[in-house]
Amino acid sequence: MGARRLGPVRRVVTVVAILGVLALGAVCCQQVLSIDGPIGVRAQDGAIDAPDVEEGGTPPEEAGIDCGIAMPEGGCASCVTTSCCPQVSTCAGDPQCKSLESCLLACGGDYGCRSACNAAAYPIGGQTDIPLLDACVALKCRDQCGMACGQAASYTTPPDAAAGCETCVSGTPNVCSAALACFTSQACQISGHCVQACTTPDCRSACANDAGNDEALVNAALSEGLFCYTPCRVGRNWTCVNHVVWPPVQDAGTQQATLTLTDPFTVPGTATPVPGVSVKACSAGGDTCTPTLSTGTGNDAGIVTLPNVGTSAFLGFSGYFEMTAPAYVPDSFYLSFPLSQANAQLGLALMSQATLANALAEVSIARVAGTGIVWVQVLDCLLLPAPLVVVTADGLPATSAVYYSNNSPSLTATSTDPSGYAFLYNVAPGPLTLRATPTDTGIESSTTTVYVQPDAMSAVWLLPTEAP
Q1: Separation in Å, CA 160 to CA 25, 108, 116, 352
Q2: Are 419 and 379 spatial neighbours (Cβ–Cβ below 8 Å)?
Q3: Which of 163, 169, 134 is nearest to 148 (CA)?
Q4: Would you call 180 helix, strand, or coil by DSSP?
Q5: Which residues contact 253 (CB under 8 A, 6 or more apart)?
Q6: Beta-bridge partners for 262
Q7: Which of the two ends of the chain, N or C, has the fewest CB atoms closer than 10 A to its terminal CB?
């Protein structure tokens, strides 16, 4: 289920909006050099015929260093080696940065090739070398390198859609200007690359909590990027499937979880805090919360902190949160990934009894006492809501899943819409293994097991899971 951003916690972000920071916004922010022409290693022998040095640049002949990354001959190479040599040299000293930038430079203006480079580098590292070089080039060598808008299709779009995405971004003035503003900002670039290094939602929340995050630019890029939703195939990036590896917990030791609990369904487009929610952190693998690892009660802003959800020297807590509140459906939210942060922050949604009743009434479904509802939201490799995905459950017919279409449940839809939502109704209590398969690839992207509770809801994000 989708969570929403909440004012009292400035940077606790959500999957639907900013948790995927820039995946639409990233349509606008996270790119590298676009340099056309064949690749040739440029000798750094102090004999470079370069234009005048822009402020902040250091000519290689004065620095006495080899910038260290192959690039094509021409005005772009001259500008980059003249104006951004320190950033190039720093990147060249990091094997991951050098490998990625070298691959991207070899693609020239082929955005599908660029997208493939990034897919091969997944997850792209969170170090600052890449965004510092990208921001320098975008700021100082945009004309020479043909970077009209920051060329926003390489990091976020599947290879076969990258060219169309770039055409849309470049051809939409507001999107282009938002892309350029982010691409020339080190803070926005660092935030975006931090996100690209994450495979879990709480890792991405931690990126947004970073003091270096430029929230205004990120939000502007996200908002304007919606114009290119379709050509950029937002929510349809599956390049990480069968390559995901869960990260070890940061600052290994005792973990805690801070949840922001909202109701995004009663008033669409808003995230109303749900106060006073009783929450338990429960171990995975059982149908009852025994033993209970941690408990807490949400405040008026819907925020609850659960201390001591687990202790690990490697993978973090991967159980579930049991949540109850008056007038709301009892909800167990299952983690299909291990929390990777010492203080993990997540935004979760609750559904009122009235909202669930209305949703079932729209498709003429009557609840059967003693059975449960399973609610899922499918996410792609960028942790964005994924359309065109089929959800199945072991032991149940494929027709059991009810998908959303145009923001309403539908008995005729055969896969998810842009919300990524699907639900199964009147499911017998007990363990249930869920699977997500994008129609774009036909390859299963996610599998996880939840426990169905009687007269309650079991919810989960079906994001790409660790490779078998």
Answers
A1: 20, 16, 9, 41
A2: no
A3: 169
A4: helix
A5: 311, 342
A6: 273, 349
A7: C
pTM, whole model, 2 decimals?
Answer: 0.81
Structure tokens at 334: 């299952």
In 10 A of CB 188, how many CB atoms?
Answer: 30
Q: Can you tell me the distance from the alpha carbon of 222 to that of 373, in angstroms, rounded to the nearest whole number?
A: 33
Extract the tokens encoding 355: 């909202």
- The Cα-based distances of 13 to 156, 168, 214, 261, 347 in angstroms read 19, 27, 14, 12, 7
Sole residue written with tokens 């070398």: 129
pLDDT at residue 270, as a whole number: 85
Tokens of 359: 């949703």
CB 291 within 8 A of CB 314: no
Residue 447: what residue type?
T
Give the residue with greater pLDDT, 328 vs 222.
Answer: 328
Residue 441, CB-side half-sphere exposure with 13 Å CA sphere: 20
- Tens-digit pLDDT profile for residues 432-443: 999 999 999 999
Residue holding tokens 């076969």? 160
Long-range contacts from 452-455, C-beta under 8 angstroms, 24+ separation = 452/371, 452/372, 452/374, 452/427, 452/428, 453/287, 453/330, 453/332, 453/372, 453/429, 454/370, 454/371, 454/372, 454/429, 455/330, 455/369, 455/370, 455/371, 455/372
